[in-house]
Amino acid sequence: MISGLIDWLTDSANWSGSDGVVARTVEHLWYSGISLFVACLIAIPLGLAIGHTGRGRFFVVNLAGAARAIPSLGLLYVMVLWLFPKLVGDSAFLVPSLIVLIVLAIPPLMAGAYAGVEGVDPAARDAAKGMGMTGGQVLAKVEVPNALPLIFSGFRSATLQVIATATLAAVAGTGGLGRFLIDGQKVRDYPQMASGALLVAVLALVVDLLLAVVQRYAVSPGLTGRGSGRPAEGGGVRRSSRRSNTPLDVEIVSSQRTVDSQHT
Amino acid sequence: MTWFFDHLDDVLSRGLQHAYLAGVPLVIGLLIALPLGWLARRYKFLYAPFTAGFGLLYTIPSLALFVILPGFLGIPILDPVNVLVAMTIYTVALLVRTVADGLGAVPDHVQQAATAMGYTRVKRFFAIELPLAVPVISAGMRVAAVSNVSIVSVGTILGINQLGLFFSDGFNRDFYDPLFVGIAACIVLALLFDAVIIVLTRLFTPWLRATGGRA
Lengths: 264, 215
Fold this sequence. Notes:
The structure holds two protein chains of two kinds.
Chain A: H1 2-10, H2 21-53, H3 57-69, H4 72-83, H5 91-118, H6 122-130, H7 135-168, H8 178-186, H9 190-218, H10 221-224, H11 237-241, H12 250-260
Chain B: H1 2-6, H2 8-42, H3 44-57, H4 62-73, H5 80-104, H6 108-116, H7 121-152, H8 165-172, H9 176-204, H10 206-210
């Protein structure tokens, strides 16, 4: 099996052309990028607004939990079945899948933005208000920078979800790396399937690591303790738990708070 | 609705299979994550590599893992063991950090009190640290449970028997009923898992009720 995989991956014929690895990877990144972009435009302002005003908290907390329960493959099939007859040309394959990717990316993004702003130290917020900042200034200069670790963890979680689901979208006729899995399965070509699977896994890993690096340099050193040679206040446990790529649960943060509350 | 009642047997048998594929790894995953999380907490230098390293496993898209694993394990792609192993990997990936953070959230003065009362390290872990970490671990278990139920349905593409097969049934025949029944059944199963974990957590944390919710 391993040798078949190596043969497939080292065969240059599999890498070039419109159905080669390079073109499929670009397609995969293109679907993921455009979906994440649209999802961010919708989810981040909403999450920030809810965190800032405190209105609609119930909505975000439950949406993030409920969205995880919806099987993405089922959603994909429903969308394709429903929208395919209504569209023409190539967009008939692509649009339903992109909608599903956007829908799936919204809850983690919104939960991250909301939890980040909501979790900002109230003392910092009060100090900003006391200095005469307006609501918008407090949000832009205090809340968003402080919320960045959680916004990033929401973004990374959404990115993984989107890359994984973009693979599934190949069953609906789109391109991307999922094609190798689906096409390979049809002709019982295990080396092709395994190569496709490996490529998707590597792509997801590389993208996540890149985002981790970006996050490291985008987040203020005051929050991460980077450069000062000591971990940020709070012992690193809660900070580092905010750096994860795993699904963000607003409840985890709050349940930790109840355990910690007797310290403060 | 009539479609649902006509196919009740199918829904139940696939539902049971789905519960088995998603549920068993939850238990195995927790049993694997407990010692790993404890190690990450006990030895500080292990915390970052363990939580980040196991967290990375969650990055692997499920369909990819379902396809790659049989090659490593030397089993057929349709073998349920394949799915069980994959789901265990995801559960461990989610829970190692949760367990480590849950154990880390046990206040120092409580541990010191336990030590002063003569608890050995092992006894302290099982009698003090683990019970106090239950609320945090349970929150992680709930995430893992719901995500497992959803991920198992991806096995549909490979033809693995579980509730997701209703998706492809409906899709291939351009027929919404099985699709919606499959999705609804997945969500009901996820809620069921969630409810079981909430009940178990209540049973294991009697002090939370006694003190009005404050640990």
